[in-house]
Design goal:
Elements: E1 4-10, H1 12-21, H2 31-39, E2 44-49, H3 51-60, H4 64-75, E3 80-85, H5 98-110, E4 115-118, H6 126-137, E5 141-147, H7 161-174, E6 180-184, H8 192-206, E7 211-215, H9 223-233, E8 237-240, H10 254-260, E9 266-268, H11 273-286, H12 310-323, H13 329-342, H14 352-366, H15 374-380, H16 393-403, H17 412-417, H18 424-433, H19 440-457, H20 468-479, E10 486-492, E11 495-501, E12 509-512, E13 529-530, E14 533-537, E15 542-547, E16 554-555, E17 560-566, E18 569-574, E19 579-584, E20 591-592, E21 597-601
Parallel strand pairs: 1-8, 1-9, 2-3, 3-4, 4-5, 5-6, 6-7, 7-8
Antiparallel strand pairs: 10-11, 11-12, 13-14, 14-21, 15-17, 15-20, 16-19, 17-18, 19-21
Helix pairs in contact: 1-12, 2-4, 2-11, 5-6, 5-19, 7-8, 8-9, 13-14, 14-15, 15-16, 18-19
């Protein structure tokens, strides 16, 4: 029996790493597995882009461009190396200017990329047109995307077959260039029947010669059934990963799909079970020291009610672990349904999935709709394009008031082009000020990663990799009652103190820490006046993103005096009273605990 050849893209080294480890895997720990994958006959890889671009600079002290070139050197010149881009956001979380969107395509073409998969979370075709042309102008293959998910129960108005047909027709009518079409379900919630009907519709609309793919995750437990439905409907390719970064929040395992299609009319890339087994053994050995979060290996029956992408879920739960708020995870997932419905049904994929998460997190931590996450607010106001349906009018009004922005229907690229900070010239000047080498790579790194990109280029970025051996070493040190250098919080008679420990004979510095509010779900308690003024505390665990005042500045009640970063969200710290700033007790990039004093107002 003649079998249909199905192209398999191995997502292990991009989406697999993102979905299980939040993208935090060092080059030296996985390149031997890339060699094993090549030996196993893999010729199509997702090897960069998406969140795996920023994560290298944020957490790994590594250059994504150098990683991509090393990857190419291992797999050879003929492999199809694919990256993920977010339309006008490229590999950033914010909209890029036209010159930065073009620079993204230029740099990725320069650094070993064959194909860019390009999506817009709102399915706003306007957001794909310019980026598509840039990708083709720089000699790359363009895989255009329709983003998918199932709506929570009781929600209607988008994300059915008719909606996807409208989106696909919009792509065709726009005339934007593409080489293949992918239907991308980052949350794995699209049910198999809808998948079958959607791929059938697409095949009729596109004809027999256009390459059609499906991308999904196992998060909701229906990925294998969804892939089988897509293949039966005429799909030409699917995405799979290798153990231990397969299943759960990631893609189905290569071996699982080889088994699922045994005896069928489909040939999965000519791959052989024995060779894949050897590849997975090498990968498992290379990653054996990495901490795998339990939620990364699980199927969640709650995900269809609150569609959270596998690639974002573990990154968010890991951040919650870091901030000591993981116990709130079930509440945040539950809060997402309302956030999705009121937000206009943008697909739960980066960056919209992060906007949903941030708003749900804010609703749980500070009270329902007491704060507006900046990304979510800008989305409902139209600054990222047109949402599939109109957002809730009350939420739009609240976002406008909180962010001090008017709703807009302008092209987001036009808005970005007017922002001087999003120009190549501005970032070139910043590199010169910092006395850093001015190259196109460095300009793009700085523009894509902002202050964290500058920190990387200056050699000041942190190394934050979660390894089992590191945790064991820490436990051993603590067991020996040895305190490493750094800042600690201790509790004496119910009062918190910040303790700074240094090597040698230096004194141990002890300072009181403001009391933490009794309930995390309530708004932060009003700061208490002290002898030198009113202490303004952090309203959540996080890092100091910006300090907006100096000692001696006069401030008004409600004025934002500092901004924290928590859960990839900017959180304003407002002055509870008017007065003069008498002290600033933290500096930029400091980690702070909920209730810790940020400034003092006299």
């Amino acid at each position: 029996m003649s079998k249909k050849f199905i192209d398999i893209m191995d997502t292990t080294f991009r989406d697999g790493f993102q979905s299980v480890f939040g993208g935090r895997v060092l080059m030296e720990d996985f390149m031997p597995a890339v060699e094993a994958a090549r030996e196993a006959g893999i010729t199509h890889y997702e090897f960069g882009g998406g969140a795996r671009f920023q994560s290298l600079y944020f957490y790994l002290q590594e250059d994504a461009f150098k990683m991509m070139d090393k990857f190419r050197a291992i797999v050879g010149p003929d492999a199809n190396l694919q990256t993920l881009a977010r339309g006008i956001n490229t590999v950033m979380l914010d909209t890029g200017s036209r010159e930065l969107v073009d620079m993204h395509a230029k740099m990725f073409a320069k650094h070993s990329t064959t194909t860019i998969r390009n999506f817009d979370a709102l399915n706003d075709v306007q957001n794909l047109e310019y980026s598509a042309q840039c990708i083709k102008n720089h000699g790359l293959k363009h895989e255009v995307v329709v983003t998918m998910m199932d709506l929570p129960p009781g929600c209607t108005g988008a994300h059915d077959v008719a909606f996807y047909e409208k989106t696909l027709r919009g792509i065709l009518d726009s005339g934007l260039p593409f080489d293949s079409v992918c239907f991308k379900d980052a949350s794995g919630t699209a049910n198999p029947t809808k998948i079958f009907e959607t791929i059938t519709m697409a095949r009729k609309l596109l004809g027999n010669d256009v390459h059609i793919r499906l991308h999904t995750h196992e998060t909701a437990g229906v990925s294998v059934a969804a892939y089988l439905a897509a293949l039966e409907a005429g799909a030409d390719g699917i995405d799979l990963a290798a153990s231990p970064v397969s299943g759960g929040t990631s893609q189905p395992d290569i071996l699982t799909m080889l088994h699922a299609t045994k005896g069928s009319k489909f040939d999965l890339g000519g791959l052989e079970i024995g060779k894949i087994l050897k590849y997975e053994e090498v990968l498992k050995d290379q990653l054996k020291d990495y901490f795998i979060p339990p939620e990364a290996t699980q199927v969640s029956p709650l995900i269809p009610f609150s569609p959270m992408p596998g690639g974002a879920l573990t990154a968010n739960t890991q951040m919650m672990r870091d901030s000591g708020t993981l116990d709130k995870f079930p509440e945040v997932i539950k809060a997402m349904q309302e956030v999705v419905e009121k937000g206009g049904y943008g697909t739960s994929v980066t960056p919209v999935s992060q906007f949903y998460w941030q708003q749900a997190y804010a609703n749980v931590m500070f009270g329902p709709w007491k704060q507006i996450a900046p990304g979510y607010g800008k989305m409902v106001l139209g600054y990222f394009g047109k949402t599939p349906v109109e957002p809730d009018a009350d939420v739009v009004k609240l976002a406008s008031e909180k962010l001090k922005l008017e709703p807009t229907k302008r092209n987001p690229l036009d808005i970005a082009d007017e922002d001087v900070k999003k120009s190549i010239a501005a970032w070139k000047e910043r590199l010169e000020i910092e006395e850093l080498e001015v190259t196109e790579e460095n300009i793009f790194i700085a523009a894509a990663c902002d202050e964290k990109g500058i920190a990387f280029l200056k050699g000041e970025s942190p190394l934050n990799v979660r390894k089992i051996s590191d945790a064991e070493n820490t436990d051993e040190k603590e067991g020996n009652n040895k305190m490493a250098d750094g800042n600690y919080t201790v509790v004496v008679d119910g009062q918190k103190f910040s303790v700074q420990v240094a090597q040698g004979d230096a004194d141990i510095q002890v300072a009181p820490v403001a009391a933490t509010p009794a309930a995390q779900t309530a708004p932060a308690a009003a700061p208490a006046p002290s002898g030198s003024g009113t202490e303004v505390g952090a309203n959540v665990n996080g890092n100091v993103w910006k300090i907006l005042v100096n000692v001696g500045d006069k401030v008004e009640e409600g004025q934002v005096v500092a901004i924290l970063e928590a859960m990839k969200m900017e959180i304003d710290i407002e002055a509870p009273c008017a007065g003069t700033v008498t002290a600033v007790t933290v500096k930029q990039n400091d980690a702070v605990e909920e209730g810790q004093t940020i400034v003092v107002i006299g």
